[in-house]
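> example.struct
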């Protein structure tokens, strides 16, 4: 399993040809609030609020997780203003329609949790939260999903993933390969995309996906298409910082024979490292 994931990630890192194409082979954007309300199921990219991630749907298509925000008055402060709080929800598909929407208690009240993503087997939920106990602003957390749909304890993934700044937009690929965006490391600018292999309670150090995938602007999420040998990156590297999808091809030789690749000794070390680093201790339990 580790060798397979290492091979997949190496293909992504070892880019030899890059093309930028907007609105071709697009990701299927499904904003949770819009889908549940039965309106626009294509989702949207917003230059005001940043990238609005899609609903994360289990492999059987029956359960979806999403986040939405609301203004709430803080617990303390008589004259305090309302603050924007993000919360995670679960929805179930019943007779072809999304319904039975439930708010999940993944963090304490008045803290925010957003960008949930569910593993392919439906047993783990990853999300970003700024709850107390985080290393910085937003950190990446994980909670086990029980057979009855209830959630276990939310656990912080620790300093191998999280920093003093924001870690956002987690997405899980092939059960254990976790992609996320971070602005707390010396990357290429703004949010950069990173990857780590995550098993039950253990993970590897995070690696930057390189200069072909990342840019000097904010890079939010990546989606792989191993059959087409392409990856799709959502980034605000467009004109005037507009958010667009970039198609990146890998594994193809350029016409002039030049090989363009991202290579780093630290990358090979990280990819071949044993998955031995534990998460941090429990951060929240209701």
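> example.seq
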């Amino acid at each position: 399993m580790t060798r397979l994931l290492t091979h997949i990630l190496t293909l992504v890192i070892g880019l030899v040809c890059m093309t930028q194409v907007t609105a071709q082979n697009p990701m299927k954007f499904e904003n949770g609030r819009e889908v549940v309300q039965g309106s626009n199921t294509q989702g949207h990219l917003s230059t005001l609020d940043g990238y609005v991630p899609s609903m994360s749907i289990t492999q059987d298509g029956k359960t979806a997780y999403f986040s939405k925000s609301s203004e709430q008055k803080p617990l303390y402060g008589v004259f305090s203003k309302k603050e924007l709080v993000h919360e995670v929800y679960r929805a179930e598909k019943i007779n072809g329609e999304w319904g039975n929407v439930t708010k999940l208690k993944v963090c304490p009240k008045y803290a925010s949790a957003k960008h949930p993503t569910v593993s392919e087997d439906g047993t783990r939920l990853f999300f970003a939260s700024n709850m107390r106990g985080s290393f910085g602003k937003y950190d990446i957390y994980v909670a086990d999903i029980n057979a009855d749909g209830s959630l276990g304890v939310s656990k912080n993934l620790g300093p191998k993933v999280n920093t003093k700044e924001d870690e956002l937009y987690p997405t899980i690929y092939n059960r254990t390969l976790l992609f996320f965006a971070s602005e707390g490391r010396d990357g290429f600018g703004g949010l950069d995309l990173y990857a780590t292999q995550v098993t039950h309670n253990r993970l590897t150090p995070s690696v930057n996906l390189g200069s072909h995938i990342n840019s000097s602007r904010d890079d939010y999420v990546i989606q792989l298409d191993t059959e087409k040998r392409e990856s799709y990156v959502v980034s605000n590297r467009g004109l005037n910082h507009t958010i667009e999808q970039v198609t990146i091809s890998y594994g193809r030789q350029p016409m002039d024979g030049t090989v363009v690749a991202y290579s780093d000794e630290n990358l090979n070390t990280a990819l071949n490292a044993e998955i031995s680093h534990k998460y941090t201790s429990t951060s929240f339990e209701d």
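> remarks
The chain has one domain: 2-284.
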